[in-house]
Amino acid sequence: MHVNSCLLLASLLLLLPSTEMKRSGKGRGLRGARHKLTRDRVRGAGRHSRSGPSGLVSPDCTELTESGDIFVDCQDRRLNSIPISKTWSKEPKHLLLARNRLKILQDGAFFGYENLASLDLQQNQISLVEEGAFQGLARLKTLLLQHNRLRTLSEEALIPMPNLHYLRLYDNPWNCLCPLDSLTRTLQVPSNRNLGNHARCEEPIRLKGMKLKQVDPELLCKESDPTGNPEWDQTNTTVPAKPSPFRGKPDATTSCHTYLFPQIRMDCSKRGLTEVPTGIPDDVVHLDLSHNSIHHLRARDFQSARSLRTLNISNNNMERIDTASLFGLLHLRELDLSDNSLHYVQYGVLEDLYFLSQLKLGGNPWVCDYSIHYMVYWLHHHPGVWYSGLICRSPPEHTGESVEEYVHSYNRECPKDRQHSRTDQDQTDPELWNTPMEVQRELEEELEPSHLRVPQKYQIIRLS
Q: Which end of the chain is less enclosed by CB atoms within 10 A, N or C?
């Protein structure tokens, strides 16, 4: 009995350390070890790809092929990290990550994307780009970073991209102080004419609104006032004046969103615009100006947008389109003028649209009078144009009738304003020829010297 008690006590002593070990390990055991191993692998992969732990989760993106190039479209996927390159079946050439939730681009964030030619990161929440974020992107030509929260960016971040040709940086709150010195100097190199256009300083006040392309780099590193006033300048003791606000037409590159793939598209919809913005790039193919307040198209509003194929100006409450407002749009294929306040389109507006194939006109209060004839005349001479929505809204006797039917009925009838007046008929009535009154008038003209004759409004010509 005593021996059995000793054996039982020894067994309890042997089991005690394992129990304590299990208790101190908080119940991990084999399952905990597997969890730890999996976690370490995820962390290791995250460090390797710089995309964070969620980088291993395959995002719901679309892979497409356009003209032999591989596109990966991850737009509007609520991503907060860069997907790892091994996610895709083929190595992409264009990576679209616009309108996600990216905040920081860490060193090596694009490891494995060495063949990228374009990278779209616009409309995220990016506030920090580490110097090695774009490491390995030696073939990158286009980088879109507009509409983010960047306050500064080092020139070193651009060094890994020697072939960078287009860089969009506008609509970021740039803090134009000494840390931005190297970037501004790089952007102002003449050969970098397509890098950083339209980006403007947000701070400090003395430089607010100035373009990074134009700000003097020497001003960025001026010593601060020892009292802590960042506006103090050793060479100027006066209080710096606030820059005058910008006036004039809105700029398209800052008011609108530009998407480069698969074709260059500019989205200016719902931007509160009251007129067509300036600075529309000449390589934009699709332009959307719908749902704004553009009441009037003026001459040469689109003179810089000579590559446009589609133009949407619907839902603007537009009342007038000047002649030559569509000047230069020789390649335009589709034009949407629907849901506006147009009564007619005046003569000559459509003359430059040689290749137009689709014209949307619905939702306008078309007035069926003589002013509407130009539209039907132009469509008659361009039978290849498909159009819709050309319906009379007024006057009441033609409401609901197609404008084309109205014009045909107009031409079949003889309107009262076309009829000759009785005076005009009298002047050409053959029964009045050779009357004594006419003979007397001819005699007076023969007796009166020619240089004293008063020019007559009407002239009677006798036909043999």
A: C
DSSP 366-400: EE-SGGGHHHHHHHHT-TT-EEE--BEEESGGGTT
**What is the reported pTM?**
0.58
CA distance 102 to 41: 23
Confidence check: pLDDT of 374 > 70? yes
For the stretch 162-180, pLDDT in tens is: 999 999 999 999 999 999 9
DSSP state for residue 299 in the 8-state scheme: T
Could you tell me if 143 and 164 are in contact, meaning their C-beta atoms sit under 8 angstroms apart? yes
Question: What is the DSSP secondary structure assignment for residue 309, as one 8-state letter?
Answer: S
Strands of 130-256 (E only): list them.
142-144, 166-168, 174-175, 201-203
User: What Å distances lie between residue 266 and 106, 220, 261, CA to CA?
Assistant: 29, 33, 11
Q: What's the CA gap between 169 and 166, in Å, rounded?
A: 10
Answer for the pair 153, 182: CB distance below 8 angstroms, yes or no: no
Query: What's the gap between Cα 454 and its chain centre?
Result: 66
| Rg of the chain over all Cα atoms, to the nearest angstrom | 38
Residue 463, both tokens: 């036909």
In this predicted structure, the answer to whether residue 284 has a pLDDT above a threshold of 70 is: yes
Residue among 78, 80, 84, 77 at smallest CA distance from 50: 84
Residue 27's identity, in one-letter code, is G
Query: In the beta sheet, which residues pair with residue 181?
Result: none
Share of the chain above pLDDT 70, in %: 70
Nearest to 57 by CA among 78, 26, 71: 78
pLDDT per residue over 297-347, tens digit each?
998 899 888 899 999 999 999 999 998 899 889 899 999 999 999 999 988
What pLDDT, on the 0 to 100 scale, is given for residue 68?
85
Give CA separation, 107 vs 47, 54, 213, in Å. 10, 17, 27
Return the structure tokens found at 242.
Answer: 């606030």
For residues 108 and 447, which has the higher predicted lDDT (pLDDT)? 108
Beta-carbon count within 10 A of 439 CB: 10
Residue by residue, DSSP assigns 77-121 as S--SSPPPGGGSSS--SEEE--SS---EE-TTTTTT-TT-SEEE-
Longest CA span, the chain: 169
Q: Is the separation of the CB atoms in 290 and 266 below 8 Å?
A: no
